[in-house]
């Protein structure tokens, strides 16, 4: 655990059923008059985007829409959204959707002020100044992007992923309304929920963890253990949806402060090489990484087990740590997540290249409770076939 720690997220968090009605007041508080809405393509079909934009327009706020965001977005999407914001004289950006839309919103707000192209800012603290104010409204319970300082992009031509990581990307407002997640189908509910679980477990076991990140990570793990299955089985289960969105927020705060670990590093090549969605890649690999890490953070993994299944408390730490792997496996399997890389149609011949790329994901690897060599990364992948 670090001696000196910091804990940061969105400047303001607004959470609750119907919270979207607060959007006009939050826009006004940030002196927004002309708003760029950055949206997932799919959100239009289910009416969620209209609902959010309508709330703002009813109060006379001028709205411009960029709705071309696709999963695992290319940096050029942020360039296009920023160009539209400039052309229409927008003074505030609202991101609505999954992690992709929120990331494109963050980056485009930054580009309006700083100029240039999104790809040139990929790295750590490369952004010179704060961009337009941002309000982020997640419609999945997963990425936690509404409270982090990162925007992740996929450069398909270079078979590479990378993030813009800057203190100026922390959103002004994270606005979370569980009713907006009710139309998310079971598949993405499961994979995004598993991504949140990965953030919580990796944040909790991170070498950069601290008392604040532990607190939110533990509560996120507990909430996901109790609610993910329910939210997948019945999307209209309001309590489960609300608890999952809260868990994803808390897991996002844990990740913003403690970072993620080897699971995110090893999941990264699956996205870059084979376009496997981020949440799914993490969900498949998580139990294998936990198995690998087990003895390096036994007490923490023992807590993961009792947080997810309180009936187990009373068992010895070693037994509990082992049980945590089975509990996660049973949970992800129960919500329909494939358990092997074979099921994702990854060729076994790619293992060495994937391990090479995973080794370049330096910060998550440095946070991981156990050091990972290239050979060990290859072993983990092989076990996952
Ligand atoms: Fe993630």
Topology of this structure?
Blueprint: E1 12-15, H1 23-29, E2 34-40, H2 41-46, H3 48-57, E3 62-69, H4 75-87, E4 92-97, H5 99-114, E5 123-124, E6 134-138, E7 150-155, E8 160-165, E9 173-176, H6 186-205, H7 211-233, H8 238-258, H9 262-274, H10 278-293, H11 298-308, H12 317-334, H13 351-358, H14 362-367, H15 374-383
Parallel strand pairs: 1-9, 2-3, 2-4, 4-6, 5-8, 6-9
Antiparallel strand pairs: 7-8
Helix pairs in contact: 4-5, 6-7, 6-8, 6-10, 7-8, 7-11, 9-10, 9-13, 10-12, 11-12, 13-15
The structure holds fe (ii) ion.
Task: Provide a compact summary of the structure.
The protein is α/β, with parallel strands linked by helices and 385 residues long.
Task: Give a structural overview.
With 385 residues, this protein is an alpha/beta fold. Helices cover 51% and strands 12% of the residues. The protein contains 15 helices and 9 strands. The mean pLDDT is 96. Fe (ii) ion is lined by residues 143, 195, 198-199, 264, 278, 282.
Mean pLDDT: 96
Strand percent estimate: 5-15%
Unreliable stretches (pLDDT < 50, length at least 5) are none
Number of helices: 15
H/E order of the elements? EHEHHEHEHEEEEEHHHHHHHHHH
Distance between the termini: 33 Å
Using only CA atoms, what is the Rg? 20 Å
The largest pleated sheet is described as: 6 strands, parallel
Shape: globular
The total strand number stands at 9
Bound molecules: fe (ii) ion
Structural class, from helix and strand content? alpha/beta
| Helix fraction by DSSP (H/I, runs of at least 4) | 40-55%
Strand order of the largest sheet: 1-9-6-4-2-3
């Amino acid at each position: 655990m670090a001696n000196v720690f910091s804990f940061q997220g969105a400047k303001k968090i607004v959470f609750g059923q119907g919270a979207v009605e607060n959007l006009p007041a939050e826009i006004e508080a940030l002196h927004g008059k002309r708003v760029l809405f950055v949206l997932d393509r799919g959100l239009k079909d289910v009416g969620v985007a209209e609902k959010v934009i309508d709330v703002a327009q009813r109060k006379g706020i001028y709205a411009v829409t960029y709705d071309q965001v696709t999963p695992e977005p290319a940096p050029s999407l942020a360039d296009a959204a920023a160009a539209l914001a400039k052309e229409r004289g927008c003074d505030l950006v609202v991101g609505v959707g999954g992690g992709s839309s929120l990331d494109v919103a963050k980056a485009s707000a930054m580009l309006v002020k700083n100029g240039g192209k999104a790809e040139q800012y990929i790295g750590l603290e490369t952004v010179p100044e704060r961009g337009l104010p941002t309000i982020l409204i997640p419609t999945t319970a997963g990425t936690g992007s509404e409270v982090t300082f990162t925007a992740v992009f996929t450069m398909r031509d270079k078979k590479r992923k990378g993030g813009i990581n800057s203190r100026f990307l922390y959103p002004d407002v994270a606005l979370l309304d569980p009713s907006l997640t009710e139309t998310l189908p079971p598949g993405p509910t499961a994979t995004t929920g598993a991504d949140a679980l990965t953030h919580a477990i990796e944040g909790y076991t991170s070498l950069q963890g601290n008392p604040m990140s532990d607190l939110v990570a533990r509560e996120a793990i507990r909430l996901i253990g109790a609610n993910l299955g329910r939210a997948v089985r019945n999307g209209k289960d309001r309590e489960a949806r609300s608890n999952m969105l809260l868990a994803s927020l808390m897991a996002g705060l844990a990740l913003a402060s403690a970072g993620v670990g080897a699971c995110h590093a090893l999941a990264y090549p699956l996205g870059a090489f084979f376009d496997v969605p981020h949440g799914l890649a993490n969900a498949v690999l998580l139990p294998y990484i936990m198995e690998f890490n087990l003895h390096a953070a036994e007490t923490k993994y023992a807590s993961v087990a009792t947080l997810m299944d309180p009936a187990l408390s009373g068992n010895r730490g070693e037994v509990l740590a082992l049980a945590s792997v089975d509990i996660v496996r049973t949970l992800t399997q129960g919500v329909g997540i494939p358990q092997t890389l074979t099921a994702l149609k990854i060729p076994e011949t790619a293992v060495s290249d994937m391990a090479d790329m995973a080794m370049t994901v330096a910060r998550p690897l440095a946070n991981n409770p156990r050091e990972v060599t290239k050979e060990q990364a290859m072993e983990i992948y092989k076990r996952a076939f």
